Amino acid sequence: MEYLQRRVGLVEDRIESVIDDVEPDELSDEVGHVVLAGGKRVRPAVTVLACEAFDGDPEAAVDFAAGIEFVHNASLVIDDIIDRSEVRRGTAAAWAEFGYGPAIIASDGLLGEAFALFSTDPRAMRTVAEAMVELGEGEATELAARPTNEAEYMELARRKTGALFRAAAELGAVAGGAEPHAIDSFGEYAERVGVAFQMRDDVLDATADADDLGKPTGQDAEMDRPSVLQVTSLSPEEINERARAESERALAALDDADPPETEAIEYLRDLAEFVVVRER
């Protein structure tokens, strides 16, 4: 665990240094409120670990890792506005703390800082741009072209959650100097982990305690949001099994890249197994 904490610590330091330089101070405070409130930092961890899996220096992936976390948090700000969710990670959501206008500006600010971090590498810019197109399409689908069956839900989960996970892994593989086939395999691994993560998130929203989860529960039902529980007749137990199947496919994709056995790879394997049993 110390191994992973050190790597996430590198990303935390970079995130804090970027936020400290944001101007004006009011925007820095708002951005800091969003990003520094906590979070699992799963996506930036994937970025750094993917880099190390190809014998890359974790320092080479830190900017990309911080950037992907900024993109993720920017999307959460908008999610909370759409859902009218007042709590995020046990603290006030940005719109509840500062108002709608400042929250939207904070989201924009996060995206700007993210792309500044990606701008050193055209491949990184392209990777994240493609992920954001998918993310935007996923958000629009959720609002305007709601899924009505399991297949449509899985496509929504791939776009809304899986695409950013894919980008996180591909960014790390690029930073580590991986070959194109390996980059694609790592991307598939992370996309499937992201889908499993979203399915488990839907189950937790319906079954977990809000205090344990760190955010309101029952939001999917209250907002009539198309969670996997709403658009299928599957039970939470059956959904967990579907998520586990995605996790197993993720592990197969990871093996397809034929990476050397390293501590980084072990953590990536552990992540694929963790997302389907997590309790928050």
UniProtKB/TrEMBL annotation:
<comment type="similarity">
    <text>Belongs to the FPP/GGPP synthase family.</text>
</comment>
<keyword id="KW-0479">Metal-binding</keyword>
<dbReference type="InterPro" id="IPR008949">
    <property type="entry name" value="Isoprenoid_synthase_dom_sf"/>
</dbReference>
<dbReference type="GO" id="GO:0004311">
    <property type="term" value="F:geranylgeranyl diphosphate synthase activity"/>
</dbReference>
<protein>
    <submittedName>
        <fullName>Geranylgeranyl diphosphate synthase type I</fullName>
        <ecNumber>2.5.1.1</ecNumber>
        <ecNumber>2.5.1.10</ecNumber>
        <ecNumber>2.5.1.29</ecNumber>
    </submittedName>
</protein>
<keyword id="KW-0808">Transferase</keyword>
<dbReference type="GO" id="GO:0008299">
    <property type="term" value="P:isoprenoid biosynthetic process"/>
</dbReference>
<dbReference type="GO" id="GO:0046872">
    <property type="term" value="F:metal ion binding"/>
</dbReference>
<dbReference type="InterPro" id="IPR000092">
    <property type="entry name" value="Polyprenyl_synt"/>
</dbReference>
<keyword id="KW-0460">Magnesium</keyword>
<dbReference type="GO" id="GO:0004161">
    <property type="term" value="F:dimethylallyltranstransferase activity"/>
</dbReference>
<dbReference type="GO" id="GO:0004337">
    <property type="term" value="F:(2E,6E)-farnesyl diphosphate synthase activity"/>
</dbReference>
<keyword id="KW-0414">Isoprene biosynthesis</keyword>
<dbReference type="InterPro" id="IPR033749">
    <property type="entry name" value="Polyprenyl_synt_CS"/>
</dbReference>
<dbReference type="Pfam" id="PF00348">
    <property type="entry name" value="polyprenyl_synt"/>
</dbReference>
